[in-house]
Design brief:
Blueprint: E1 5-12, E2 17-27, E3 30-36, E4 46-54, E5 57-64, E6 71-79, E7 82-89, E8 94-103
Antiparallel strand pairs: 1-2, 1-8, 2-3, 4-5, 5-6, 6-7, 7-8
């Protein structure tokens, strides 16, 4: 499994600009991904599914409780203690870069 540990990245979206924290762990051979969002998003839940590993890249899908029924996609490529990636929002035809991705 790749990318296990705690990570941070900066995003710039219409509803939020700033740092998000991500915890990637192994749950009996399956990826378990949790997000730490800023206080103003307390109670917002993010569920992930269909996480796939290919080389040093993880991709997957998810839903955020603020956008019920709307699926999001993410792709992240790890390089040591850093990563690059994007959050894709198919229903808006937008791709949001994940900047300054690093292990914390």
């Amino acid at each position: 499994m790749i990318g296990l540990g705690k990570w941070s990245a900066t995003v710039n979206t219409l509803i939020f600009k700033g740092e998000i924290k991500i915890d990637i762990s192994d749950n009996n051979g399956e990826y378990d991904i949790h997000f730490e969002l800023p206080e103003k998003f307390k109670g917002v839940e993010i569920r992930t599914h269909d996480i796939k590993e290919e080389g040093n890249t993880l991709s997957g899908k998810g839903e955020i409780s603020m956008l019920k029924g709307k699926e999001l996609e993410a792709v992240v490529t790890f390089d040591g203690d850093t990563f690059t990636g994007s959050l894709n929002i198919p229903f808006l035809k937008k791709s949001i870069p994940l900047k300054n991705g690093h292990r914390i």
